[in-house]
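> Could you send the Flavin-dependent thymidylate synthase prediction when you get a chance?

Sure thing. Input:
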Amino acid sequence: MTLTPEQQSEIDAQRASGTTTLRATAPGMEQHLYTAIPVLDHGFIRVIDYMGDDAAITQAARVSYGKGTKAVSNDEGLIRYLMRHWHSTPFEMCEIKLHVKLPVFVARQWIRHRTANVNEYSARYSILDREFYIPAPEHLAAQSVVNNQGRGEALSGEEADRVLRYLRDDAMRAYDHYEEMISDVGQQGLARELARMNLPANIYTQWYWKVDLHNLLHFLRLRADAHAQYEIRVYAEALCEVVRDWVPFAYKAFEDYRMGGATLSSGALECVRRMLKGEEVTQENSGMSKGEWREFMGVIEG
Ligand SMILES: Cc1cc2nc3c(=O)[nH]c(=O)nc-3n(C[C@H](O)[C@H](O)[C@H](O)COP(=O)(O)OP(=O)(O)OC[C@H]3O[C@@H](n4cnc5c(N)ncnc54)[C@H](O)[C@@H]3O)c2cc1C
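Output:
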């Protein structure tokens, strides 16, 4: 279960105690505040706090005294200009603080994004819950034959059953031993900070994660991408929805120029120019390696 009834009632109480403020609020984000968005089998993302909205980006860009906006359409145009020209600091004026529950192996990928502030649940101090990520059968896939860092078709039949059984049994056995080792009934009981080391990487951890919008968009560009591992991608996709509701203009610009856009090398650009002139350009006469050509064709053919 993602949340216990006690945790849910704490969240409900937080949502029920409204306060008034002079600060800018984003209506779309107010809807998300404190609610838990389920991800994977036991995980979630919860918005704990945020600062700023689309107007905060343009205000900072204009170093304005007031709201800094002449018309909403000007705001959108300016945000698109900033995104297009990599003028990124105005996006850093918006911040978000999240509570995330995620498997440890996903956390290891996530923590590589250093430009954020993190506080993780302490397994030295507290006892971890018996909660493990077990992939749904359609996500239990074979090693990819074309990409060393990816997966191919879903496993099937006896192999799928056996793998799922191993994942469940190994996790349960490791947790049983964890519980037994930390128990002080009839023994001294091993320290939590040591007992945790036999737990598998699919156990869930939790953290508070605070980041500014510029670095969040960088995270989303890498982790909501089709090449990112499924288990972190689903968190990034859930976050994309939150960001869309929070700063709709910035998110639209991000979709256009970053997620949906592409960067071409000078050689690739030269090939496009030759193609536009009607020249037949092939990998052999492009000056690109086979891999680069394949990626280039992926970009221009869609
Ligand atoms: C598909 C994919 C596969 C990956 N595979 C691997 C892998 O096999 N092995 C592996 O180790 N990692 C891997 N990574 C992680 C990757 O190398 C980055 O560590 C991760 O994506 C975080 O990116 P970042 O450093 O740009 O982000 P952040 O840490 O948030 O940094 C944002 C930006 O700030 C700047 N910055 C931050 N800290 C510093 C610093 N100390 N010095 C200089 N500039 C800094 C950089 O410009 C950086 O781009 C993979 C990531 C992806 C998306």
